[in-house]
């Protein structure tokens, strides 16, 4: 027995040495498998499948620092931190560029899963830059990732961090795509969760970021999503497609068809973002999503809620500041508002989206939807393929002024609890929600009616209000009343 402990100790030490994390230095910008290249470093890390590997990409020569990939990089198969080391020193990103092997004209260079389709808004995992697939705990930091069809593909992977990167000119799918796609277009639950995308700069991607097909419980915070005139398909800053329980907070979205678009996602929390100069700020369908305390200004439509087949679906709008919309911004790449004579303003119900027959704009390159599958919105949904007015058709309150107080009259469901939210505007004629004033609970009587007063208001020109039912469905803004 005296020899057992030393032998076990040797075995333990040997095992420890086998799983030791390693650091790989990238100081060779050639794209081959020679030592010091990025391709070599990823492959070395993949063979050491343990926690905590590092790939440190050093600045070589003078800025700009660019590694040009001549063919697809190997997927990342180990938990590893890939860090452009210069960012922490000077703020310079070390770029990984896909332009040498992705050839073609703009978005047409990026085919979808259906080879007849291309560009933004088609199902795709084609020609990505960095691929995080079926592996967890990967960090990307200090990198410039551009000119791929998808900058970063996070597929069926969790607990990854994408932070302090510049992600640009990825025209096919998106700058960053988080998806539970099973490879056949079906969502997978619990496979793409708890990822964080923080403090990045997204420029001129088709979609800046996508949360799709089962991506859930992910955090997207403090990023800037912007598009310029050189972007061939300025679609969405963020698109959520069948993604649930995600949090999108503190971001800025500008110059897109839609700042943020939700397609049938559930229980996503969207708060403290700023959306400006988009055709539509928020373009929404889905159930249980909460849009809270955002700044929405200078768009064609501030918040659009689309009709859908689920007539019970509801979207909660609360404490959002909405002003100076109704701009002439007809930008409609996989979203946006280009319908002639469309109602414009702060909150608009029934705006057509890609799934609707009266949508005007691009549904995606090569995408054809049979007319029989296109939806429409009707005041009465007693016809085939006809959706009812969205958000449970909740009616706006009627405001008036009496003895200096604002009086709100409600006509709704009987014996139900509702929440009124009041907003003020600084100029006469303004009809939006420039300043949040507060909220008040109200209960309807047996006839579905209620009347409440709001305190005397000074220093404002007009007041509007929304009504939210106990299920969380919020109305459009009421017509404004002038404050004497």
Detail the topology: elements first, then pairings:
Layout lengths: L3 H15 L4 E4 L11 H10 L5 E5 L7 E4 L11 E5 L1 H5 L3 E4 L30 E6 L5 E3 L1 E4 L3 E6 L5 E3 L2 E3 L5 E6 L16 E3 L2 E3 L5 E4 L6 E3 L2 E3 L9 E6 L5 E3 L2 E3 L3 E6 L5 E3 L2 E3 L3 E5 L4 E4 L2 E3 L3 E5 L9 E4 L2 E3 L21 E5 L26 E2 L8 E2 L10 E5 L2 E7 L5 E9 L9 E9 L5 E6 L7 E8 L11 E2 L2
Parallel strand pairs: 1-2, 2-4, 3-5, 4-7, 5-8, 6-9, 7-10, 8-11, 9-12, 10-13, 11-14, 12-15, 13-16, 14-17, 15-18, 16-19, 17-20, 18-21, 19-22, 20-23, 21-24, 22-25, 23-26, 24-27, 25-28, 26-29, 27-30, 31-32
Antiparallel strand pairs: 33-34, 34-37, 35-36, 35-38, 38-39
From the structure above, extract its key features:
mainly beta; 11-stranded parallel β-sheet; 3 helices; disordered N terminus
Description:
The protein is mainly beta and 484 residues long. 6% of the residues lie in helices and 36% in strands. It is built from 3 helices and 39 strands. Strands 1-2-4-7-10-13-16-19-22-25-28 form an 11-stranded parallel sheet. Helix 2 (38-47) links the parallel strand 1 (23-26) and strand 2 (53-57). Mean pLDDT is 93; it is low at 1-17.
The percent of residues in helical segments reads under 10%
Using only CA atoms, what is the Rg? Answer: 26 Å
Total helices: the number is 3
Mean pLDDT: 93
Q: Helix- and strand-based class?
A: mainly beta
Neighbour order of strands in the largest sheet: 1-2-4-7-10-13-16-19-22-25-28
Write down the oligomeric state. single chain
How much of the sequence lies in strands comes to 35-45%
Alpha carbon gap, first and last residue: 96 Å
| Shape assignment | elongated
What can be said about the biggest beta sheet?
Answer: 11 strands, parallel
Number of strands: 39
Unreliable parts: 1-17
């Amino acid at each position: 027995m005296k020899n057992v402990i030393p032998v076990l100790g040797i075995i333990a030490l040997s095992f420890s040495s086998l799983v030791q994390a390693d650091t790989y230095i990238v100081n060779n910008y050639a794209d081959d498998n020679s030592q010091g290249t990025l391709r070599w470093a990823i492959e070395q890390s993949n063979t050491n499948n343990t926690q905590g590997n590092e790939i440190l990409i050093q600045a070589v020569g003078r800025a700009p620092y660019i590694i040009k990939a001549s063919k697809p990089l190997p997927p990342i198969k180990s938990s590893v931190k890939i860090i452009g080391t210069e960012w922490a020193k000077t703020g310079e990103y070390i770029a990984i560029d896909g332009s040498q092997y992705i050839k073609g004209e703009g978005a047409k260079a990026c085919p979808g899963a259906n080879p007849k389709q291309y560009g933004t808004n088609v199902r795709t995992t084609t020609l990505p830059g960095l691929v995080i697939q079926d592996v967890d705990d990967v960090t990307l930091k200090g990198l410039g990732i551009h000119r791929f069809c998808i900058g970063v593909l996070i597929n069926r992977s969790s607990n990854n961090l994408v932070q302090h990167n510049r992600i640009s000119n990825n025209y096919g799918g998106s700058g960053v795509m988080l998806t539970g796609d099973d490879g056949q277009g079906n969502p997978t639950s619990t496979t793409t969760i708890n990822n964080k995308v923080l403090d990045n700069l997204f420029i001129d991607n088709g979609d800046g970021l996508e949360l799709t097909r089962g991506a859930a419980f992910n955090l997207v915070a403090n990023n800037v999503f912007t598009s310029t005139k050189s972007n061939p398909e300025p679609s969405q800053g963020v698109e959520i497609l069948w993604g649930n329980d995600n949090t999108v907070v503190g971001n800025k979205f500008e110059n897109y068809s839609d700042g943020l678009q939700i397609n049938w996602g559930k229980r996503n929390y969207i708060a403290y973002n700023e959306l400006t100069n988009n055709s539509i700020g928020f373009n929404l369908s889905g159930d249980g999503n909460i849009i809270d305390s955002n700044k929405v200004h200078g768009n064609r439509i501030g918040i659009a809620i689309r009709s859908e087949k689920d007539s019970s679906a509801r979207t909660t709008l609360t404490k959002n500041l909405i002003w100076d919309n109704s701009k002439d911004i007809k930008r409609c790449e996989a979203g946006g508002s280009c319908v002639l004579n469309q109602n414009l303003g702060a909150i608009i119900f029934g705006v057509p989206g890609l799934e609707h027959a009266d949508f005007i704009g691009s549904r995606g390159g090569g995408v054809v939807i049979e007319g029989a599958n296109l939806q429409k919105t009707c005041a009465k949904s007693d016809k085939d393929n006809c959706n009812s007015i969205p958000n449970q058709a909740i009616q706006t309150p009627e405001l008036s002024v009496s003895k200096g107080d604002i009086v709100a009259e409600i006509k709704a469901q009987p014996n139900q609890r509702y929440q009124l939210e009041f907003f003020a505007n600084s100029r006469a004629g303004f009809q939006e929600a420039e300043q949040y004033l507060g909220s008040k609970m109200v209960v309807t009587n047996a006839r579905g009616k209620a009347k409440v007063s709001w305190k005397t208001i000074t220093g404002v020109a007009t007041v509007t209000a929304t009504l939210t039912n106990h299920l969380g469905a919020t109305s459009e803004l009421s017509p404004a009343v002038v404050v004497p």
